[in-house]
Amino acid sequence: xxxxxxxxxxxxxxxxxxxxxxxxxxxxxxxxxxxxxxxxxxxxxxxxxxxxxxxxxxxxxxxxxxxxxxxxxxxxxxxxxxxxxxxxxxxxxxxxxxxxxxxxxxxxxxxxxxxxxxxxxxxxxxxxxxxxxxxxxxxxxxxxxxxxxxxxxx
Length: 154
What we know:
- This protein has helices spanning 2-6, 8-12, 31-34, 47-57, 83-100, 126-132; strands at 16-21, 24-30, 63-69, 109-113, 134-140.
- It has 154 residues and is α+β, with helices and mostly antiparallel strands.
- It has a five-stranded mixed sheet.
């Protein structure tokens, strides 16, 4: 709930999504929100959003995994041999930013690049490819921090 509150404007502008799954919360940055096409450096426009997220993550227990994802259009540049390199570099850029704030312990963070191996949808249209280009911050809540259903049990 706190994440949704601090990300209210970004949610309204459809720059991010917040997804809840079991003991996990995922913050999904859409392709254009965090990075320019083919770039690994964070967009300056997303930094205030990351600062808001860091405020919440610093007070929230659990492991934090940053995942980079691409579409299936191959990239081959001097910096990136493939979409694997690009997706991993983007995830690492987010982790570096989170670390430099000093509010999240390094042992809570990891970065993973998945290239186009975990698409959300097909890669047949420009819109579909745009949905697949994303960075996700997943917060895995420890079992003790996950609210349990209440009820009368014998």
